[in-house]
């Protein structure tokens, strides 16, 4: 059967179609002796044998590789067979009408023949498919490893089917798991749903499973975390289908399975973005992104590119990062259908007003996304002059040039650290927000700011620091056991920024819904586990003390602001934010700039407090606690100049 070709299938069709017609007559007449209908049967067979190969050829039946036939091929074969039998009946009727020499065929025969004929012509083809699958299994050098799949939805269906078709993958799905009790006992491609996530240990022991595949691209991080912990306790490895936003081309396959990453444990339900509205805003427009080579700026560029701008202007101060993202964008643009946007790279410093004027006059952007900023809290505490010159003066320069050149829409990327700031960085971002609101008030244009928390994978992200420390053998350093932060993935944050840019009218501050705060020490523990190591045995966690300017908790509400929902469930607007702008903001910023130019750190800090009354630098650092209690029976090791406390093992 493995050597059968489409020529052989043509011969089978010629033999099996008359057999199907004869069987139809037998069913219709309820006798094997056709008597007076044998001539009608013969005429039908002759016409069908001629018509069927022609129809099959037109449908491409003889161009199919039946060793790898799927449900699609079976449906195509059934449809082509039904059409062929119908066509044969019509031809037979026309011949009878014109010549009157064809015997009359019972009217029910054309309806009886198709299912019988389709079944018969499918048999040799399906035998080839079955034989090929058995041959692939026989040739597999190793016994396939039993696996369980968590999830019984569309993603699981694709993974199960691919594993079944490719024995070379070395896997055999022994069962499915799903938390929906209604799916218990159902079968997907012959594989039964055996229970929920809590059944993993028992099933793994029974079937000697060493791997669980999480096939739930939309599962929240809490569910992924729970499944991972269950698998760890059962001694089972875990792989996962990436989250929805990672599946750029929308396809799911075994090749895309990967180990669980920290982003999976913190992810939330997929963000529903009104892509049509974003595309309508950006399409055929000249869009400029400052800080385009940075983590947020580069992702903004990638997502904006899909919206079809006429020009995408990538402005940055670091030549290497701008060069890399522009090369990437050019490759992506070449692969897009239709007219490709023009990618423009600009090396410029936003602190240089005249340089910005030249750039804006040359490229005349219509929409500006301002992502350039100094954001590292401890460094900005040491260098407040730099924080002011970049975050405040740079933003003011951009706004001045945008107003001069008629930029229609301006979106600034802000931070939750701007809310009741305790750091220089937070205070400078708060002043930048005020400048945006002031420019919106003066111009009446949709100039807005968008706040959000920490983003995983960004430069300076704590997750990257932990990865480096784990790779070096530890210790992993955490400032305080009660330190909590809001975390988002970069793609999710940028999607919401783009959505907020559509919602913005004039002088608004938007806050993204960042979910629940996460203990940084829990993040460290999870990353150590994901590396296959154990806290306390392989890697220590060290508490180093809260750094200058840091808070234990990030706040969501500033004084005088009231957050109200928008039409998007993940985006809130700070009502009353414009009421907090000082009357002499521009003059105060000019004086702050002069202090920065004079490199007067003390004057800069004093002026920040004058402009941002809620700015309250901590006068003393809270003590380091271990497991929520005062330190006791803990190891102390020197780390840099200060002492650090090693987390006691529980």
List keywords for this structure.
about 650 residues; alpha/beta; Rossmann fold; 3 domains; 7-stranded mixed beta sheet; 20 helices; about 15% strand; disordered C terminus
Provide structural commentary.
- The longest helix has 31 residues, at 109-139.
- Helix 10 (295-305) runs parallel beside helix 11 (319-334) and helix 12 packs parallel to helix 14.
- The chain is an alpha/beta fold and 650 residues long.
- Helices cover 46% and strands 15% of the residues.
- It folds into three domains: 6-138, no CATH class; 145-266, 3-Layer(aba) Sandwich (Rossmann fold), CATH 3.40.50.720; 275-611, NAD(P)-binding Rossmann-like Domain (Rossmann fold), CATH 3.40.50.720.
- The chain is built from 20 helices and 24 strands.
- It has a nine-stranded mixed beta sheet with strand order 10-9-8-11-12-13-18-22-21, with helices on both faces. Strands 3-4-2-1-5-6-7 form a seven-stranded mixed beta sheet, with helices on both faces.
